[in-house]
Every structure is written in C-alpha cells, then in structure tokens.
Amino acid sequence: MCNLRFDDTNPSKEEVEYVESIQQDVRWLGFDWDDRLFYASDYFEKLYGFAIRLIQKGKAYVCDLSADEIRQYRGTLTEPGKESPYRNRTVEENLDLFQRMRSGEFPDGSRTLRAKIDMASPNLNLRDPVMYRILRSTHHRTGDSWCIYPTYDWAHGQSDSIEGITHSICTLEFEIHRPLYDWFLNALEIHHPRQIEFARLNLTYTVMSKRKLLELVEEQRVNGWDDPRMPTISGLRRRGYTPESIRLFADRIGVSKNESMIDVALLEDCLRSDLNKRAARAMAVLHPLRVIIENYPDGSVEDLEAVNNPEDPAMGVRKVPFSKVIYIEHDDFRENPPKKYFRLSPGMEVRLRYAYIIKCVDVVKDEKSGEVVELRCTYDPETKSGSSQSGRKVKGTIHWVSAMHAIDAEVRLYDRLFSVEDPNGDDWKECINPHSVEILRKCKVEPSLAAAKPQDRFQFERLGYFCVDNDSKTNALVVNRAVTLRDTWSKIEKA
RNA sequence: UGUCGGGUCGUCUAAUGGCAGGACAACGCCCUUUGGAGGCGUCUGUAGAGGUUCGAAUCCUCUCCCGACAGCCA
C-alpha cells in the first residue's frame, strides 16, 4: 500500500502544472492510492506547531542572518562553521519573533527559523539548517494564507510521520540528509518512519536529470515532455511502451544502492517481450516499391487469411486483400543481391507472406536517376498459402500490401536521442543524435488499420512494434515506431 | 584532503561463511511462411594485498577506485 504525496513546500516553483500529469503517469503505471492523495501543504499548521515545540525545547531559533551570511557562517566541507550571533536568543524572544514572521511583519528573506544542532558537524546538513523562510508567494493550494514556508528537509520527515509511514524510500542523494530527519523526529519524539535510499535510474543514450530534460523541452530540441524520444513516463507512453513492459523492466533491473548505468537495450527487450505476446500483427510498407504481378488476372481480388498473433491463437485471424498491383519494401529487393540475401532479386523467387511465391522477371528504372521504380513479377498460383502445394520452400518471406486497398500513413521512426552512451559533461547537447527521428509520409499499410486509434499498438511484421500517435486522425493515420524487431540480417550485412 | 555511501561477467543483478547463478548484450548452431518468436550452446566476473577459517564475494585489517554533500531547491 502506498500514499501519493506532493511535497509542495515551495510555492515559487511551478508545481501546479506537474501535479496532474504526475498523477496520470503514476496511475497509468498501475498504482492505486485510493483516497490517500496528500500534500505537504495539508500539514502546514501541524508543522508550524512542531516548530513551536522545538523552539520551546530550545532546539530552534529565529536567525536574522542573510542568505549570504548564512552561507559564510556554514563553513566548508573540511572546516567547521561559526555559530550565528542570534543562536542564543531566549525561548520567549524566539516564540515572539516566529509568530511575527508568520503574521507578516518582516520582509521576504529577512529572517529564518533554524534548527539548533551543531555548527561543527562534519555533515553540513546538521549545521543549523533552515526550517522556515519568509516568502510572499501565492501557493497553489493554500493561496496567500502563509508568508512563511517550511523547507523540504523540515517538512519531509514529519509529513511521513504524520501519515504513519513505515518505510520511506528515496534516492541516494538524500542519504546524507537522513541524520537530520532522524534528529527532527527524535527531538519531537513522534513516530519514526524508516528511510531507505536506493540508486536512481540511469539509462544509456539519454539524460535523466529534470534540469536537462527541462532544457531539452524549453529549447525545443524535442516536442514537449511527451516527445516519444523523452525518457519520461509520458514520452515512453506516447512512444508505445506499455505499463507492463516498464514494470517488467523495473523487476529485471532490481533495486540497489549501486550507481549504475543500465543499457537501454534491456528496456527495449522488455517492450519486445511484452508486445510479442500481445500485439496484433499487421503488414505495413514503409518505403513502397510497386510490384506488378503480370500473370495475375486484372481486377481480381482475393481475401487471404492472416493470423493476428502466432504467439496467441486466441487473437484469431483476419482477411488481407491481395491483387495484381502490390507494394513491397524497397529494401526487400536488390538488383545485385549480396551473399545470404534471401529476398527478391532479378530472376529469383520469394514468398509473399500469407500469399504466393513470386518471381522477379523485370526491373523498371527511372530513366534519369537509374533508380528502381517498379518490379514486374509472375506468381505461381499453386503456391497459395495454406494450399496443397504451399509447402514449396523458398528462402525468404516478405511483407506487402495491395496497392488499391492500402491506406496511407505517416510513420515516425524514433531512435536514441543521443549518439553517445553517457551524454554528460558540458557539451552534452552536442551529443544529440541528429537522426533521432525520421518522418516517413508515404507509407502504405493494410486496410485493417483504418479503425486504429491513438495508443493502439501493433507489430508491423518484420519491422518492429508501432503505436498510433495522438496526432493521428481518422483519415490521416500517424504511427510511431516504439522499437524495432531484432534484426539478424542487419548484423549479417554489417559483418 | 571532512562526512556518508558504493565497488561481483561488457551491462544490470543473485548468492548473508558451503558448487559464483540469472537476465540483457555479443558470438555460433538448430528451427522458422516474420532473417520475428522459440530452442541449444559458447564467451566473460568477486578492485588489490594480507589475515581469520576445514572452507571467504560474504568476517577482520590496510590500500585503491567511484559517487553524494557547502540552496532560504526537492
């Protein structure tokens, strides 16, 4: 069981715009917090009371030092700090001043409430940390009712305690703050949750820090937080990732305190293994090459049966129309086939998935450019998929769509956002992969996709897993490539 | 040269004093009407040096390397 709490301790940060999308993301991932949605601002009054208690115990004081002065008094990593001249005010004076801070008598930044701990502590967090600052700013939940706001370090542990949290897990950078949280809880003598830290996720070929992600968004190097190249939940969702695949990924990488860099290939594999079992198959041609089957009767159309998912017979079958003119993938034809190339080439045969074996008898080229623009083929009527003669072996099987039945689609091919594994250092933005997205506008997909809606996911046979984009409209299909299939051929060809 | 934390195959992660295992990646083979999926196999690891022990990745000592921390951010 978990709570969802927003630690909205700083009204000057634009938290409002994130509150809704964070909830949406967490819910989409599959978590349910029932009615336990909380805000640290729910506890402002209680926190104020806790602060008074610490003052009364002589464990907190009002300090008149400026931000700069506090920094100077803090000392350094290797040298102890100096005590504030206001450190030994009386309880009465502190109580009075703190109450007047709340009632708005002092200007922003002029005073703070600080915990009275140890200015010589080797842990900087214990050198009299600030608990309250004066800040006149409208809060998204409490409006203008407060002009002093608790710091995160002061609010966090007590908020957990109020909620009766048993285990509070957070990332490693808060490890060094734990002694402070412990100190507050012990001083207050209230329920003491156990905080456990773990390493944050790092992925290869991307950046994860909020600061860098924000920069990418603000400088329009990506199209918003949900750009399919972003490693955000909303980006992954739009890219085509499923909640299941992300949870599988989380299971596989485990939880530890090791600061690690996880190969994005592992994430991709999780998506493949989820979608392999669940995604409907379809045929789509990204770079169409027109093929005319010369001996196929003009005007004739056959509805061929295709299985929706060979991994799951329960997903059934569908009909795919076949006719004299089809499109195949441009790359599935080579005029001069390399060794081990099992697809179409002049004089050679290939199987059309769910249809016939065809043979290439002629190649039509553009007179000027010499580019192959059309193929003339013949088919063997005896080799129809599923028929008695269909067992004839050919090395390759390729996908296709019938030209007169095909639907036009825009396909967006996404690749890694960065071209280096670990884009850190000052020049990280120069490592952005210039080919992280390629937009194809003249793709042809089989007619069954006419009804596809945003977020529908498919495997386009031999190509990869694709997800209908939010930009998609009824007569203007837009799909994103989430991840390619494993491609053994590309490795053979490279070698 | 302060405090805290961390070092196990290329990458993650198991093994809590008793056979260093799994996944991803890579490579090879089989199978295949997706060069998909699947199957089989190969490769590679306890940061270093001492010590305790019948036995150490695990316990002890020293060394080395990496990270976090000097916001009135979270």
Summary, kept brief:
The protein is of the alpha/beta class.
How would you describe this protein?
This protein is α/β, with parallel strands linked by helices and 495 residues long. A hairpin with a 6-residue loop joins strand 16 (357-365) and strand 17. The chain has helices spanning 16-29, 44-56, 67-74, 91-102, 152-162, 178-188, 210-218, 233-239, 243-253, 264-278, 488-494, and strands spanning 4-6, 37-39, 60-63, 112-115, 130-134, 148-150, 167-171, 194-198, 280-282, 284-285, 288-293, 302-307, 317-322, 325-329, 349-352, 357-365, 372-380, 397-398, 400-402, 407-414, 437-445, 457-460, 464-468, 477-484. The strands form six sheets. Strands 9-22-23-24-20-21-10 form a seven-stranded mixed sheet, covered by helices on one side. A seven-stranded mixed sheet has the order 18-15-16-17-11-14-19, with no helix packed on it. The longest helix has 15 residues, at 264-278. The protein is elongated, with a radius of gyration of 32 Å. It has eleven helices and 24 strands. Helix content is 24%, strand content 24%. The structure holds one RNA strand of 74 nucleotides.
